[in-house]
Amino acid sequence: MDLFEYQGKQLFARYGIPVSAGEAVTTVEDAVAAADRLGYPVVVKAQVLTGGRGKAGGVKLATNTEEAREHATNILGLDIKGHVVGTLWMEKASDISEEYYASFTLDRSAKAYLGMLSAQGGVEIEAVAESDPDAIAKIHVDPVVGLTEAACRTWVEQAKLNPAATEGAIDILMKLYEAYIDADADLVEINPLILTDDGRVHALDAKVTLDDNAVFRHPDFEQYDAIQHRDARETAAHDKGLQYVGLDGFVGVIANGAGLAMSTVDIINQVGGKPANFLDIGGGANADVMAGALEVIVSDPNVRSIFINIFGGITKGDEVANGIVEALRRVQIDAPIVIRLDGTNADEGREILQPHLSDRLQMQPTMIEAARTAVALAGEAAK
User: Fold this and answer.
1) Is there a smaller number of Cβ atoms within 10 Å at the N or the C end of the chain?
2) 166 and 215: one domain?
3) Residues 250, 354 within the same domain
4) How many distinct structural domains can be found in the chain?
5) What are the catalytic residues?
């Protein structure tokens, strides 16, 4: 779950991280009023959940009321990579001496949190990693131990920040780590973290991604759900409680478990097809869940075949099969379906499905055979 910049800054401020004064507005008149209150110069910033807003004209400096009005008028309604600007962040401009980069995320391979800090901020960190990887100081933080001030100080020294920024950077990084842990975030990023002309360090930008699965621990985070950028398919899936990501292919995918769903997407590509989506129905593949998943899949006009890939575990194969049969009675489906069913009670599940098999509903014993069949059927449907 991604947050707008201003929401990320509000989160940071709760942990004592210094951020620029600003106001979120949704109309031109409110933008002008906010700018007048903040005092000029102000920066007019588009609030969108994508990068590249500066290059798209979504960030402008206003030195007076007329410029604030002009920029607000031009930016509100602006389309930035498919994201239409509906909110502006009016921010008091800062005097910038130096720009840095700071972030925390999870390094799964190391089974630890990963902090990254660089004296080269204000640009995409991927570009820095490619052109000058040694410019990024990294620290792995044991979740049990946490980030100690001593470790943080060593980290800052390794990043070779301006000595004038050392104490301020340590203070912010300790608080940023606290925010990362307490908020159950997948990512917290400040780019740039700035050193001002008068020696202060504070966050000039904020990028925050929260873990959707931890929302139950944070009732106040439900407010962020409404701002998530989803297409019609993703909205329908979200409303049904399904884990869905729309892609641009022609083979619909239904699988139980994120790992299996990702493998299914990969194997469709491997055999020459293009997946239309990632869809994980989780452990409860009953009729209601399966019907909901099929409704989402068939709502995509590009889908020419459907691959249902199920490995029975906690949810047994016979239960899955009964769910599929009942779902097929409820949902009108024109695309042919290929099923691969394995795992616990798979034989019983196949027996349940057997009487319903036809040219339009096929079953294959292995994942790769099922993928090949689904891709072939999609090819025939395109003729």
Assistant:
1) C
2) yes
3) yes
4) 3
5) 101, 189
